[in-house]
Amino acid sequence: MTSQPAVDSVLHLDSISVDFGQVRVLDDISLTVRRGEVVGVVGESGSGKTTLARTVLRAVAPAEGRVNVAGRDVTKLRGGALRAWRRSGAVQYVFQDPLRSLDPGVAVADSIVEGLRIAKVPPADAARRRAAALEAVGLDEDLIARLPSGLSGGQRQRAAIARALVVEPQLLVLDEPVSALDAASRDRVVQALIALRDQRGSDLAMLVISHDIGSLAAMSDRLVVLNRGRIVEDGPTRRVVAQPEHPYTRRLIDSVPLIHTPSANRP
Ligand SMILES: Nc1ncnc2c1ncn2[C@@H]1O[C@H](COP(=O)(O)OP(=O)(O)OP(=O)(O)O)[C@@H](O)[C@H]1O
Ligand SMILES: [Mg+2]
């Protein structure tokens, strides 16, 4: 069975399977992210979360199924066409380790607008977009003259998110954006993502990946639960947290002392 993406979908995975050698790592994954929606993907280590993110970016080729991003079927893109699509910036990726996005020898200010410079966006326009992105993630302008080593882990991760935002993607994929951070920095980044979700509305969708259902629930409209490469649950965050349908989801929830869900879950 194949399904067509909804008109307002920015990501539509249709029955995706991914194999590494003989091992099926993702098995029959179907998942839609609608415009402006924040979808959290939660699962234990090894459940296939990063592989799912890499499939969205087409860094991994699925053995079966289709990948549609912002109305474009990218399943079969290769070589130059794949690189051109990546450069278009429709999807941006934020790594667990912000130092993978920020060049250690370059001032943070320059790293943030690197993509715009390559795209030959005029410097004044780039500076304006950088200021808007910094404000969106709550990062002080004074900090960005520094090298990444001069920032805290949380500040660095917010700079990496700002770097992704300046390109004005329709979809931001964040793979464990807070896992490497201490508790205080984690809170700042989670708050920045919640603020982004509220400010950008339908302009920005996010696929946020984490093994920590607590921080995901705070920012996600929907939760998708991945267990051994299969989706075992997919629903509105408050429903999934209050009435999990799958025992695996219940176990994840029971392992966290207190879960906050968004105060105003949008439809
Ligand atoms: N390039 C690869 N070649 C072979 N096996 C791989 C490759 N990448 C991932 N795997 C395997 O696929 C499975 C899923 O890995 P993946 O990295 O997607 O999990 P994850 O949910 O992101 O885990 P974590 O929470 O530890 O980051 C694991 O069993 C992993 O060993
Ligand atoms: Mg991972």
TrEMBL record:
<dbReference type="InterPro" id="IPR027417">
    <property type="entry name" value="P-loop_NTPase"/>
</dbReference>
<dbReference type="Pfam" id="PF08352">
    <property type="entry name" value="oligo_HPY"/>
</dbReference>
<comment type="similarity">
    <text>Belongs to the ABC transporter superfamily.</text>
</comment>
<keyword id="KW-0813">Transport</keyword>
<keyword id="KW-0547">Nucleotide-binding</keyword>
<dbReference type="InterPro" id="IPR017871">
    <property type="entry name" value="ABC_transporter-like_CS"/>
</dbReference>
<dbReference type="InterPro" id="IPR003439">
    <property type="entry name" value="ABC_transporter-like_ATP-bd"/>
</dbReference>
<protein>
    <submittedName>
        <fullName>ABC-type glutathione transport system ATPase component</fullName>
    </submittedName>
</protein>
<dbReference type="InterPro" id="IPR003593">
    <property type="entry name" value="AAA+_ATPase"/>
</dbReference>
<keyword id="KW-0067">ATP-binding</keyword>
<dbReference type="InterPro" id="IPR050319">
    <property type="entry name" value="ABC_transp_ATP-bind"/>
</dbReference>
<dbReference type="InterPro" id="IPR013563">
    <property type="entry name" value="Oligopep_ABC_C"/>
</dbReference>
<feature type="domain" description="ABC transporter">
    <location>
        <begin position="11"/>
        <end position="253"/>
    </location>
</feature>
<dbReference type="Pfam" id="PF00005">
    <property type="entry name" value="ABC_tran"/>
</dbReference>
